[in-house]
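re: ur question from the group chat, yeah i did fold both. here u go
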Amino acid sequence: MAVTLQRSVEFSMMDMAKVAYYPSIYDLAHRFFESAWEQMCDVSYVTMITERRLGFPVVNITSEFLAPLRYGDTITAHLSITHLGTASLGWDYRFENQEGTVVWTSQQTTVCVNMETMEKQAIPDDLRKGLSEHSQGSE
């Protein structure tokens, strides 16, 4: 089951062509990524980083830019887990504008790391439970 979140496209994200500058779209995706943890696992990403000392950096990313994101658009993001490995996670992102047009898709792989050593580690069981409930195909 996908997590669904919304944010507006802000003026600071625009480029000279009056569309969202592509690095801003990746920044927006990361904001959705951080917010998704509370819905998926009942833990904030801030708590994971600062208290649990766990991180999930991206190690692989592919994206398609399908339509422009414009100032004032409301973006609905659908995030789901496509792969739940021992230490890695596959993420599927789909952004739609307020008209329901798919504007951006991305597939990303993150790896669970110890923030002190930056070495990969197994995804803890409490997180694994929430993540598995948001895997594609789960109801």
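okk and heres the other one u asked abt
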Amino acid sequence: MERRCGIASLTCVGRIALTLLAAALCGSLPAQNSDETARLLASFNSHPKADIAVELIKKYEGMHDRFDYPYYGYGHRRLPNENLSYDMTEEEAEALLRKDLAVRYKLFRRYGKDALLLTVLSFNVGQGGLLGHGGHPKSRLVRKLEAGNRDIYKEYISFRCWKGKPVHSIERRRKMEFLLLYEP
């Protein structure tokens, strides 16, 4: 099945295989058992645009190598007591990515149609940057959604800066994410 921008979805068998592989890799999550992980993965993978989200992150993150420590695969940050290798296959890296996205998706499910968009954004900027953390307030994007206002293009694209300066490649990424994942 073809998707816009040449991003193809996985077959049902491929999805099942990736789910099983991700569940095997999820043993490093201390607060979750394998049943909980499988439920999270099933919830995330059931979203109609989950495959597009995964392909977008794979495109913009690329496979990380030893020079990107502590990041592995397609941007997974190594957790304490987690045993990972830079020699992982693309399938293993995608399974790890799906697991990470499923955990984040659980945090954003209450935002309904915007849950997947927030999940993908948080993969790059962190959930603390969106939901607030410590002394940092919630982002304008989240506050606007909580107020019932879904006119969020400007706020979404505003997450395009690195060290306080706008970066055109990040802006292109945000625009592509919004174009493909936003549900009116």
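fwiw on the second one: The chain has a mean pLDDT of 84. Strands lie at 71-72, 76-77, 161-162, 165-166. idk if thats what u expected
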